[in-house]
Write a structure and sequence with these properties.
The radius of gyration is 15 Å and the shape is globular. The protein is built from seven helices and no strands. By secondary structure, the protein is an all-alpha fold.
């Protein structure tokens, strides 16, 4: 039995990772590759911290619902937004070709036009 092995396996356990990302979205970076591609896990991480988006699988970075959740999370009062830290700069090319999502993003955050 190895403690390191046991800890590594915890990041592949869906229930455990869901609980962790609900507390700290950026812990998504430690999740297994499979869980970084899990729709629910990624949405929960983003709801906690929109910057968790950068750790989502490429496929989910192009997913309309996931990108819309980033926009919703960014709308919360007290959030400071700047071009260099916008999570959507890591969106896949799929997002850029999705006019509906990009229109929503640009309407909320004009500086995001840079990523369109």
């Amino acid at each position: 039995f190895s403690l390191a092995g046991a800890m590594g396996n915890a990041w592949g356990d869906r229930a455990s990772v869901l609980e962790k990302v609900r507390q700290n979205g950026e812990l998504l970076q430690r999740a297994s590759e499979e869980l970084r591609g899990d729709h629910e896990v990624v949405l929960e991480a983003i709801r906690n911290n929109e910057h968790a988006f950068r750790f989502a699988s490429e496929a989910l970075r192009g997913d309309r619902e996931v990108c819309s959740e980033v926009v919703e999370t960014m709308r919360h009062p007290g959030k400071v937004h700047c071009l260099e830290r916008c999570p959507l700069q890591r969106a896949s090319q799929v997002l850029g070709s999705n006019q509906e999502v990009m229109l929503e993003v640009v309407q909320q955050f004009g500086f995001a036009l840079h990523f369109a």
